[in-house]
């Protein structure tokens, strides 16, 4: 049996590269992760239940539970932004140019 090669990555762009993805995919991974982090942070800080958030964002409790467990695979970025708005957070996007 072959030993699996271990690859360590430190950020989303390294992860995308290790997976053979485009740099733009790394940006998407990073943005979605940041959105997910903020949702979790605010929901916990405000003491909201998954049902509370689902009602505010007009989505299912199942989707909120998935997000709170960092399982955002089947959840759109649009929905993540809608959830943030529903819980009183507004996203401001800042662009940075990375060195090549």
Instruction: Calculate the mean pLDDT score and round it.
Output: 92
Query: What is the CATH third-level topology name of the domain at 33-100?
Result: 434 Repressor (Amino-terminal Domain)
Determine and state the CATH class of the domain at 33-100: Mainly Alpha
Number of helices: 5
Characterize the main sheet.
none
Describe the secondary structure blueprint for this structure.
Elements: H1 12-18, H2 23-46, H3 50-57, H4 61-68, H5 77-86
Question: Keywords, please?
Answer:
434 Repressor (Amino-terminal Domain); 57% helix; 5 helices; mainly alpha; 100 residues
Polypeptide structure, described:
With 100 residues, this protein is mainly α. It has a domain at 33-100: lambda repressor-like DNA-binding domains (434 Repressor (Amino-terminal Domain)), CATH 1.10.260.40. It is 57% helix and 0% strand. It has helices at residues 12-18, 23-46, 50-57, 61-68, 77-86. It starts with 11 loop residues before the first helix and ends in a 14-residue tail after the last helix. The relative contact order is 0.13. The mean pLDDT is 92.
Brief characterization of the structure:
The protein is mainly alpha-helical and 100 residues long. The chain has 5 helices and no strands.
């Amino acid at each position: 049996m072959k030993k699996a090669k271990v690859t360590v990555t430190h950020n989303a762009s390294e992860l995308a590269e290790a997976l053979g993805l485009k740099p733009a995919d790394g940006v998407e991974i990073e943005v979605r992760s940041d959105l997910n982090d903020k949702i979790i942070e605010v929901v916990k800080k405000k003491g909201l239940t998954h049902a509370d958030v689902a009602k505010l964002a007009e989505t299912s409790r199942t989707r909120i539970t998935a997000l709170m467990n960092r399982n955002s695979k089947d959840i759109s970025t649009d929905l993540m932004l809608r959830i943030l708005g529903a819980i009183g957070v507004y996203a401001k996007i800042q662009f940075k140019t990375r060195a090549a």
